[in-house]
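Module 6 notes. Inverse folding takes a fixed backbone as the condition and produces residue identities as the prediction. Think of it as a translation problem where the source language is geometry and the target language is the twenty amino acids. Below is one complete input and output pair. Work through it position by position during the lab.
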């Protein structure tokens, strides 16, 4: 893909209302399914107990679905997987996936423009990139999941290589990547991935 195409491509996804609605719908479905299954510990009924979020640089999603067990002596949380939020990051998952995939091999001036448009400082972007190459690659999630890809995904060019391995049309592809990553977005899974 040409540099200018990649830049436009990133920006159009970030402004794509239909995509945002689609991701919201997927998260709502995941939440509903979790709720239906009940508490993981005692099978008790779950109550809504969402987390407040203020994601930067993307859609203004202000709540992450979460539940709390209704049983008096349990009260444990259950937080569904998400295609919108990547663990406790302040940026929405799609911002992180898109920018880190897109900047791979892009000229520094273009990287800077995108960074500035999204108000991401250069250290943050470097940290994200390092996270893919380091924490992500070493995670039990990735170690179990990478076998699904044939040919194997190149671990030195993540997440761009991951992006390329989903051979779908644009919007479906972004959804597929975010769905693939969703098991690692729950608080329990995220513990291992935080940096
Ligand atoms: Zn319970």
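Target side of the pair, the amino acids:
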């Amino acid at each position: 893909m040409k540099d200018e195409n990649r830049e436009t491509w990133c920006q159009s996804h970030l402004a794509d209302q239909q995509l945002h609605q689609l991701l919201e719908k997927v998260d709502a479905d995941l939440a509903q399914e979790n709720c239906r299954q009940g508490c993981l510990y005692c099978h008790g009924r779950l109550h809504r107990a969402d987390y407040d979020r203020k994601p930067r640089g993307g859609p203004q999603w202000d709540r992450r679905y979460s539940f709390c067990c209704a049983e008096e002596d349990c009260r444990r949380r259950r937080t569904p997987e998400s295609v919108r939020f990547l663990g406790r990051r302040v940026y929405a998952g799609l911002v992180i996936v898109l920018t880190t995939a897109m900047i791979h091999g892009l000229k520094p001036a273009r990287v800077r423009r995108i960074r500035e448009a999204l108000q991401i400082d250069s250290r943050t972007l470097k940290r994200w990139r390092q996270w893919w190459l380091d924490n992500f690659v070493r995670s039990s999630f990735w170690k179990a999941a990478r076998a699904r890809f044939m040919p194997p995904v190149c671990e030195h060019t993540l997440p761009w290589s991951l992006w390329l391995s989903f051979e779908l049309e644009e919007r479906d592809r972004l959804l597929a990547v975010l769905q693939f990553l969703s098991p690692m977005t729950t608080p329990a899974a995220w513990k291992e991935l935080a940096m």
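Reference fact for the lab report: DSSP finds nine helices and five strands in the chain.
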